[in-house]
Each structure stands twice: as structure tokens, then as C-alpha cells.
Design brief:
- It is a single chain.
- This protein has 262 residues and is mostly helical.
- The chain folds into 3 domains: 62 residues; 79 residues, Tetratricopeptide repeat domain (Serine Threonine Protein Phosphatase 5, Tetratricopeptide repeat, Alpha Horseshoe); 82 residues, no CATH class.
- It contains 12 helices and no strands.
């Protein structure tokens, strides 16, 4: 009888841990959804609660995942110093537990931070490693994200031809995976690049494409990216004039709505 009681107590304890793990991972999913739509305050609340659970359970994989997501929120919110701290804390955990998908995310995050801080050599090294590991493990969404980040880096360095090639490759991956949010983000970046190249009609069409796709899935432009996007939008409108810009923008939206974006 005593053995049965002990087994029941142990079973209850195990269920309690499983329940906490389920709540922790669910909170991460809630945070991810909030992050996509640009509600960073809600994302932070969910991630902070999940991190508390992960640390209480000494659950390294959950801890590393939350730290990585906190890094993304900090980066997207224009806080690169905080982002670096979170990514650097998560990176050794990913390495220690041998979780290569998580490792890729932390490397890419640190690469993006280095690019924001204009340490282009370090950014290239980190992003190249992220792309290489992503390809080795067959993680196609992460391949697309690494290509996208490398495209942003190339644009920052002034290598517009390489940037365009990287963005086009990333966009092709997004399309083939039917990832609407990813496609929208890369098309927006292609639009900003087109403005730098003086290709204003192309920029207006791409901006219209991206806007319609974001609208389909409720995705938001990150806070740190919005000023650059708005400057590019204004430059294209000023060059083309309101009527021509609006006509091309609308045509781009119509193409995106039809599912024929290329």
C-alpha cells in the first residue's frame, strides 16, 4: 500500500512538471504571435513568465529559447545592447545541449546586432556560420532568414548587386514554403534597395506587394525598421509623384492579393 501511495505521489509530481513545461512552451508561442504583429509589450510579458518557469524547472532548452526570443524583441525594438546580452546568454546553452537550430537563431541574432552596430566583418562571420549550419541541418526557414540577414548586411555595406541576389534567393525560399510574412519582409527590403538603386517604379510595386501580404497575415514592420521604410517610401513617392506612385502601389497590392507575387 505504501508503494502505491509513493507511486501516486510521484505521478502527481511528474504531472505538475509536465503541466509547467506545457505552460512554458505555450507562453513562448503566445509571445511569438505577439511579436509577429508588433505587440512587443505582450511578447515580453509572455516571454518573461516563460523564462521564470524554465529557470524554476532548470529546463535548459526552454531557457535558451526564451532568451533568444527576448533578444529578437530587444533587437526589433531598437535595443541592440540588450539584444546582444540575451543572445550571448543563450548561445553557450545551445552549444552545450547540441541544439543546432537554436544555435543558428542565436548566431543570426548576434550577426544582426553586429550589423546594426556597423561591425560588418563580425556580422558577416556570424551570419555566414548561421547560413552554413542551417543548410547542414536542412532547416529551410532558417536558410531563408540567414539569406535575408545577409542581404540586409550587403545593402548596409553598399553592395547592392549582392544584396539583391541574396534577397531574391530568400524570397524564393519563402514563396516555396508559402510563408507570407517572410515573403512580405523580404519584398519590403527589396523595395528599399530599389530606392537606393534609383529604381523607383520597382520600389513602389514591391512596397505595394509587401503591404498586401502583411495585411493578409497581420504582420507588422519592426520598430527598428520602420523609420528606414518610411524614408524609402517618401523618397519613391517624391520621385514618382502621388498619382504614379499610388497607381503602381495599387497594382502591386492587386498582384499580391491574387497570389501571383514574383
Amino acid at each position: 500500500m505504501r508503494e502505491l501511495r509513493c507511486a501516486l505521489v510521484r505521478g502527481v509530481e511528474v504531472l505538475a512538471v509536465v503541466r509547467e513545461e506545457f505552460v512554458g512552451w505555450t507562453l513562448i508561442e503566445v509571445g511569438l504571435c505577439a511579436q509577429v504583429v508588433g505587440d512587443y509589450a505582450a511578447a515580453l510579458r509572455a516571454y518573461d513568465e516563460s523564462l521564470g518557469i524554465a529557470r524554476e524547472l532548470s529546463y535548459e532548452r526552454m531557457t535558451a529559447r526564451v532568451l533568444t526570443q527576448l533578444g529578437e524583441v530587444a533587437l526589433f525594438g531598437g535595443r541592440p545592447v540588450d539584444a546582444r546580452r540575451f543572445f550571448e546568454e543563450s548561445l553557450p546553452i545551445w552549444r552545450e545541449i547540441g541544439h543546432r537550430s537554436g544555435l543558428v537563431d542565436a548566431l543570426r541574432g548576434l550577426g544582426d546586432v553586429a550589423r546594426v552596430e556597423r561591425d560588418f566583418a563580425v556580422a558577416a562571420e556570424l551570419l555566414d556560420e548561421s547560413l552554413t549550419v542551417s543548410r547542414e541541418i536542412g532547416a529551410r526557414p532558417r536558410v531563408a532568414m540567414a539569406l535575408h540577414s545577409l542581404g540586409v548586411l550587403a545593402a548596409a555595406e553598399g553592395d547592392f548587386s549582392r544584396s539583391e541576389s541574396l534577397f531574391e534567393e530568400a524570397a524564393e525560399h519563402w514563396r516555396e514554403m508559402n510563408d507570407v510574412a517572410g515573403t512580405a519582409e523580404t519584398l519590403r527590403r527589396l523595395g528599399e534597395l530599389a530606392v537606393k538603386q534609383g529604381r523607383f517604379q520597382r520600389a513602389a510595386r514591391l512596397f505595394g506587394d509587401a503591404d498586401a501580404l502583411r495585411e493578409q497575415v497581420g504582420a507588422a514592420i519592426t520598430l527598428c525598421d520602420r523609420p528606414g521604410y518610411e524614408r524609402a517610401l517618401e523618397a519613391a513617392r517624391a520621385e514618382l509623384g502621388d498619382d504614379e506612385f499610388d497607381a503602381i502601389w495599387t497594382a502591386g497590392r492587386d498582384v499580391a492579393a491574387s497570389g501571383k507575387v514574383r
